[in-house]
Description:
Order of helices and strands: HEEEHEHEHEEEEEEEEH
Strand order of the largest sheet: 3-4-5-13-12-11-10-7-6
Distance between the termini: 79 Å
Strand content: 15-25%
Shape: globular
Number of helices: 5
Helix content: 10-25%
Amino acid sequence: MKSGYKKILLIVVLLLAGCDYYVSEQPAQQAPVPFYNRDSRGRADTIGKLGTHSISIPAGVIDGWARYMGDPGDFADPKIKARYQRPPESYDLPIESFGFQYRITDGDVYTSFRKTEEDYRRDNETLIPYGKPFPWAGVIIYGEYDAATPLNFNFTVQDDFRVSKEISNIDYIQQPQPLYSLTVYRANNGIDPETGEPWKSDTLTKDRMIKKDQAGNIKTYIKCEFTHHIDSCDHMFYNDDWHIRVWIGYSRTYLPQWQEMENNIIKILDSWRVSREGKLLGKQIGKA
């Protein structure tokens, strides 16, 4: 009996070991590799879902890299970064943010290994050192995924005015005339109360401009310098169709074109739209 029992036990152990071996040898189930659109050099596009639309961003366009929802922040604990595994890439993977360079004068974008790369370098060398307006704008796109967050700057603007009053004792006063269809607010009507003269510094007193939609919600919010040789503007707007927030930084010289910039940036994003399988829905702007 003992001998027979040992034989049965040995068979069971071997069977179990065989099962374990069989399981361990099976290849890990992997997500299907998505189709990638590529440029003339074979570089793959950056893919994902931005707000409500799947997109394929041409290679060489993004300034830096795209951040996806859930990615650790730049200053996250290195241990967290080392352990983090991003979900497989797909046209449904939500994009948190990415940036690129937009040329204001013709609505084009910077792409490496394309003529715009040469143009951008030339403009840097021939315009900025001589104090001439730079025709390029930095753009950052943010996907908005929280349904509870309103797509407007109503609270942001009110809170900015509150902080200016409580911290710096500065009242922002609406100006009687709009500027390029924007409602303008100036710090103490543009006058430094301590000197009775126009502000010499705009560190805390930038001009603020807004544009509301038909429902009265603030969809565009712009802050501009006014005391520098080349003043700059920080321009933000929401787009309901895409469910995104956009930041643009540019020379105040180009403020009159603020609406054109908003429209062109959406046209650029529209040109990058794809089906969930990656099929382009139009001709990509910025493709090398």
